[in-house]
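Researcher: Please predict.
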Amino acid sequence: MTYILFYITTLSDIPAEEVVELANGRCNQENVVEQLKNGVNAMKMPVRDLESNWAYMVITALAWNIKAWFGMLMPDKARGTQVVKMEFRRFLNTLILLPCSNYQNGEKDLVSCSWVQ
């Protein structure tokens, strides 16, 4: 099966390749909006109060931004790019919700965490 894609634009002063890049960039933005809606449930309105719902939406958007900053600030750039592109639920389960055990060894308190790959 062959697909033929058409782009209709009013931008006649830029080459076709740039039009395609602009359209693909728009697609990435739509993926971000979809993740905000379904990944972190930013559009879920938990209470009837408008200000409380606004605060909930802001907090979930901040959670999304923390994920992006976490990925951008990682020393390993390849792994950081993976984190930035990662869906929020996978980020949460892979890097945030770590199974850890606390124990004492003599006078030291130790924490052992297992990283999920």
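Model: Helices lie at 16-39, 50-72, 77-85, 88-96.
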